[in-house]
Design brief:
Strand order of the largest sheet: 1-2-3-4-5-6
Number of strands: 6
Helix content: 25-40%
Low-confidence stretches: none
Number of domains: 1
Number of helices: 7
Order of helices and strands: HEHEHEHHEHEHE
CATH superfamily: Aldolase class I
Distance between the termini: 38 Å
Shape: globular
Structural class: alpha/beta
CATH topology: TIM Barrel
Length: 206
C-alpha cells in the first residue's frame, strides 16, 4: 500500500472536485503497485460519482489481481513507448525482465477482461517518431479505443536522482531537449490512423 485509502479520500475532500469531468489516479509512482488500488477506486467513485481514469505503465498487468482491481476503473490509459526491447530499455529503463512482447501480452489480457475504455499513450520522441510501421502491429493486437501521443517538452537529467522528482526547475542545467517538429508528429499520427483505423489524439498547439 502506498497511501491509505482514508488519506486519499481525506485529501480529495479538501479540493474542489465537483466541476471536474473525471477523477484521474496516477500518483507520484505507478498506481498499480498500490495494494489498495481497487479499494481507492471504489471509495473515490462512492464520494464523487465521477468516472475514474487510471494512468499506468502496464508493467503489473501480468498479475491477475492487479487486472481485476484496475478493471473497476471507467477508463485506463496504458503506456507503450517502444516497439522493441532495445528502445524500451533506452526510453523507459525498466527492470530487465520486462519486454515489449510481455508488456503487450499483458495489456491484451487486460483488454479481454476490461469493460471500460482503454487508451494507449505513446511518448513521441526523436528516438521513436520514425517507427510508426513498427508500432502499428502492436497497436492493432491490443485494439485500444484511442491512442494518445504525449509530446514531452522539458529537459531531462543524465542520471535519475530522487531529489529531482517533481522538481523540474532543477533540470535547467541538464541536457538540452529537442522537441519534435509538427510535421513529424502529423506523419506519425496519419500513419497510425491509416494502419489501425483507431483515433489518434495529440496535445493542442500551445
Amino acid at each position: 500500500m502506498w497511501v491509505p485509502t482514508d488519506r486519499v479520500i481525506a485529501d480529495l475532500r479538501k479540493v474542489d472536485w465537483r466541476d471536474c469531468d473525471v477523477i484521474t489516479i496516477s500518483g507520484n509512482g505507478e498506481p498499480t503497485l498500490a495494494s489498495n488500488l481497487g479499494e481507492v477506486i471504489k471509495a473515490v467513485r462512492a464520494l464523487t460519482k465521477k468516472p475514474i481514469v487510471v494512468l499506468t505503465n502496464g508493467s503489473m498487468l501480468n498479475v491477475p489481481a492487479v487486472r481485476k482491481d484496475l478493471s473497476l476503473a471507467d477508463h485506463v490509459s496504458c503506456k507503450l513507448d517502444a516497439p522493441s526491447d532495445e528502445l524500451l530499455s533506452t526510453l523507459n529503463r525498466p527492470i530487465n525482465e520486462l519486454t515489449v512482447d510481455g508488456l503487450v501480452d499483458s495489456i491484451i489480457a487486460f483488454r479481454s477482461e476490461f469493460k471500460g475504455e482503454l487508451s494507449l499513450q505513446t511518448m513521441l520522441l526523436p528516438a521513436n517518431a520514425a517507427k510508426s510501421a513498427e508500432f502499428i502491429p502492436l497497436y492493432k493486437s491490443i485494439k485500444p479505443d484511442e491512442i494518445h501521443l504525449n509530446l514531452p517538452s522539458r529537459a531531462f537529467p543524465d542520471l535519475w536522482r530522487p531529489e529531482l522528482r517533481g522538481d523540474h526547475k532543477a533540470f535547467s542545467n541538464e541536457r538540452a531537449f529537442r522537441m519534435l517538429q509538427p510535421a513529424e508528429v502529423a506523419k506519425f499520427k496519419k500513419d497510425v490512423e491509416k494502419g489501425t483505423k483507431v483515433k489518434v489524439r495529440i496535445p493542442p498547439a500551445a
